[in-house]
Structure formats: C-alpha cells, structure tokens
Here is the input.
Amino acid sequence: MKILVCISHVPDTTSKINFVDDDRAFDKNGVQFIINPNDEFGLTRAVWFQQKEQAEVTVITVGEASCEPTLRKCLAIGANRAFRINLNPTDGFQVAQQLSAHCKEENYDLIIAGRESIDYNGAMVPGMLSAHMGYNFVTNCIGLEIEGSTAKAKREIDGGIESISCELPLVIGAQKGLVEEKDLIIPNMRGIMQARQKSLTVLPPVDSQIKSTISKFEKPAPRGAVKMVDSDQIDQLIDLLHNEAKVI
Amino acid sequence: MGILIYAESENGKFKKCALELASYGRAIANQLGVELIAASFNHSEYQTLGTYGVERVIQISDPKLEKFTAERYAANLASVVKENGVKLVLLSSSANAKYLAPLLAVSISAGYASNVVGLPESMDPLSIKRSCFTNKAFNTCVLDNELNIISLSNNSFGLKEEPKEIISETKSDVSSETNFVLEKVERASGQITIADAEIVVSGGRGLKGPENWHLIEDLASTLGAATACSKPVSDMGWRPHSEHVGQTGKPVASNLYIAIGVSGAIQHLAGINSSKVKLVINIDPEAPFFKAADYGVVGDAFEVVPELIEKLKAFKNS
Ligand SMILES: Cc1cc2nc3c(=O)[nH]c(=O)nc-3n(C[C@H](O)[C@H](O)[C@H](O)COP(=O)(O)OP(=O)(O)OC[C@H]3O[C@@H](n4cnc5c(N)ncnc54)[C@H](O)[C@@H]3O)c2cc1C
Here is the structure.
C-alpha cells in the first residue's frame, strides 16, 4: 500500500499572531513552526500502517525551503521519503492542484491530509484533492481500518459518528481521534539520524490557478474589562446574564 | 444571477443554521436585487424558509438521498447551480456543509471561503471577512471569480425575518452510483450539539474527575446547553473526544460560554474566542481565563456551581 500524507507547516499553537507589511502578511518573526496537529494525527496512523502492513509512507508539502525542517521531522517520525513542491502558495485551491499533479504520477492508495490547518483554517485541501483525483473522500476522520482494497472509516458528525465502507483509493481529512494523543510519536535520536539519510526531493510547481487572495489581516478588537461577581452574589450574576448580556 | 443556499434539515425541520443562512442570503440578495433560492433534500415543509426571505425552494427527493453523503449532495447542488444561473452559493459551517463545500467548489470551478463572519465588504469583486489562525485573527479574502461559495460561521449573522412569497419546485436526483456505503449513523438522541448550541457549559481539569461531571451536566440541562471540555479532560478519558474544544478540538461560537475549572490556556481560548459572552468560574483569581472573560466568579466550583444551578432553576420558574 502506498500512502501519501500532506503536511502543512504552521505556527506553533502558543504563537502570538501579528501582522506586518501594512497588515498584509503574517509576521514570522520569532515564530516556531510545527507539523499541523491534524496532519500529525494522520501521519501517526500512516506510520502505524507502515509498521503493521508494510505500507510505504510519503510526505509532501507545498512550500518554500523554510518548510524543510518540518518535513525532516516527519521523516524522523517514520515517513519513508519526502517531497516539497517549491511554491509559496496563495490559496488552498492552488495547493490542491499542485498536490493532484503529483498524485496523478504516483497512484497512491491512500492520501491523508489534516481536516484543516490551524493557520488559515480553510478546510479545503483534502476535499478538493479528492475531487481532482475522483477518489472517495471522508473528512473529520476518527477511525480508519483497511482490509485488502476496502477501507472502513469513521467520521465525526455533529452529535455522533458515521461508519463508512468504501473502496480505495481514498482521501481522508484527519483529526484528533484517528489516533490517541498518547500514540503520537516523538522522534528519538535514531529516527533523527535516519531522517538525514532519507530522500527529500524538491519538485517544480505545475501551472495552477488562484481563486482567492488575502487583502488584509486584522486582530480581534480589544475586549472590555471582565466584570467580577462575588461568589456569594449568584443572584447578581443571573441578573447580569439576563438583563445586561441578554444570554439567558 | 441568483443566490443559492443549501438549507439543511434534521428530523423534518430546518436547522437553525439553515434559517440563519436564509437571513444572510436575503440581505445580500436585497443589495444585489437578485433572487434567493434554496435547495433542500427530502423535505416538504418549506414555508419556514419563506419567513426568512427565500423566494424559491428546489426540493430534491430520492430514497438514495435519505441520508447525507457529501458526494451525492454536492452533485445535486452543482446541478442546481448550473440550471439556475447561480453565481453565489451559501453554506453553513455544519460538519456536513464543510464536507461537501470543497467537492462542490471543484465541480463547479468556484472560489471558496470558509469561516465567513459577516456580510461582504464589496460585491465586485466579492470581498469578505473570515476568521483565521483559529479565531486569533481575521482576514479579508477577495474572491474574483465568476462563481463563488461562502460558508458562514454559525451564529455570526443571526436570524432575521423578512417574509417572502415562496414557491416550490421538485427535482430528481442526478448523483451517480459509487462504492461509498454509509453503513451506520450513531447519534445520541435529544442531545444538543456544540455546533448548534446557544449556550455551552465547559469543564476543565479543575473538576478533579469524571465522577463530578454531574455538575456540568446539570448546569447544562438547566440552561438547555451543550457540554464541552478542555483537551486534557478528553485526553484522560474523562469525557469523549467529541467534547474537546479549542484550537485542536472543536470551535465554539455560542452566545454564552461558561468555563468551569478551565485555566484558559492560549490553545483553549483560540477555539472559543468567537463566543459572544464568556463566564468564567475558577478558584484561582490569577487564572489567565479571567483576562478573556466578560463575567468572572472566583470560587470553588463545588460550591458555586450547585448554587448557580439551584438559583437558575428558581429564576426559570419565576
Ligand atoms: C499543541 C497543543 C494543542 C492544544 N490544544 C488545546 C485545545 O484545543 N483545547 C484545550 O483546551 N487545550 C489545548 N491544549 C492544552 C492547553 O495548553 C492546556 O494544557 C489545557 O487547556 C489546560 O486544561 P485545563 O484548563 O482543563 O487544565 P488546567 O490548566 O490544569 O487548569 C485547571 C483549572 O482549574 C482551576 N481549579 C482547580 N480546582 C478548582 C475548583 N475546585 N473550582 C474551580 N476551579 C478550579 C485551576 O485554578 C485551574 O485554572 C493544547 C496544548 C498543546 C501543546
């Protein structure tokens, strides 16, 4: 089985979000970058298939050379090889087109992407990629088993869980629950050393379209000060929630 | 040109997000002077949509569409778009709508923006504000295309009645056969989901253990609220993963978010930021959450919450 895991290189969850260039660009200054958490759940499941079922795991990102440490980390976690499509993408539409051009040459059985990234939260890439490829698609995926050419997947829905059966090839949008938090792999020294020897190939981008651009970023308006209510004044709290905030 | 909304229903009733979408669509249709159309699946009671400004509903019915599947629903919506000269498609932020959106976008070659938080800033080219960095920021997104899709963040526009004469048409299923089989849908009945809830009551590690969750559940049921939790609470198995809110869990955009025994870590705050009013109950006056709250009570949850439940019950009965 050939598995591709699409990796997004995103600011660490503790990052302070600031903008530069007249609020037209994200300020990367002093920001640590990590594997997008949803992608990491997917990568962990892929490495499980590699260890249990001899699957071959490839990771890919569409991004500039600054993304390479994130790909090396994926190799240290256990991926067999990595690709970087050398383009600083403008939108998710473009990312999906770049990825599909690569996938058409490789015929992966299973393509895993995070259900959304924690930076632009587009929730576009896995679905668009599946549509370009004509593959089955399950997003918000919280369970995946594969037997022969059949996949059994679970999808989290609002207030429940759906069980799905379909044929490979399949694209999934990974999220928490696909593997447990404790199963996430922290690379050890051996993994890190091996990762240096593994192949990381840079691919030129193909022609692609852009459907959206960002004209401006802004931060939420500063909020008013908190109103503290004494713990023996619960009646006053209820009054505030009812008459002032009008939420109960 | 027309505007199309995908009107989601459940158990024979339109969901609140469908009515919010109709209200939002009506406001844009008024600006542009165009028709507001709705597409719905296996649903016959359509008058409610008229109350919120829809002028025409296209009802697609087929036993194969009884349960939601993204591919089949997207294929039918694409066909509605093409047959009706639609230029703008509006979707909610439900799990299902966000599942089909990218499929629809590729099939009709449309631009797509998710997490949209308000009316367009301009129509030509279409420019909208959306949230990004998991609610830590916003960006203005320009969609300069023939056809575009917007998914509106739940609870960001609200319900606005503007009754219209509504006509109804039927359409048959156009989706093709696939090997994709929906084997089972398990749904807790009668439970309010985090996505649909007006009020969310959330518990953190300060509640000490799963045996104390009756406090959260009782408060939630008194308020008709959904229950949620912080990440470590779901990691430790005190509560199901589906309740984990925050940057790596579910986003919350309720009218009222009540956090009990939650410290207010940056990753937690990121996910719940777009809730309108936040009440924090925490024993530690220095808890970072107070800086992000509208109302705060310093106190022991095991004393404050039972009293709050009791007084709320009295308040509701009065
Ligand atoms: C990559 C990454 C992603 C993350 N994503 C998320 C996420 O999506 N969501 C999330 O929630 N977290 C997330 N976290 C974890 C986050 O950093 C915090 O660790 C977590 O939110 C803390 O949970 P908590 O507030 O329940 O627990 P704690 O931080 O332990 O806080 C417990 C609180 O309870 C209070 N308390 C104790 N006893 C009482 C009492 N008797 N009455 C009232 N109050 C009491 C304490 O004063 C304290 O403030 C993430 C972390 C990382 C590294």
Observations:
- The longest helix of chain B spans residues 16-32.
- Helices of chain B lie at 16-32, 47-51, 70-83, 95-107, 214-223, 231-235, 266-272, 301-317.
- The mean pLDDT of chain B is 96.
- Chain B has two domains: 2-172, 199-317.
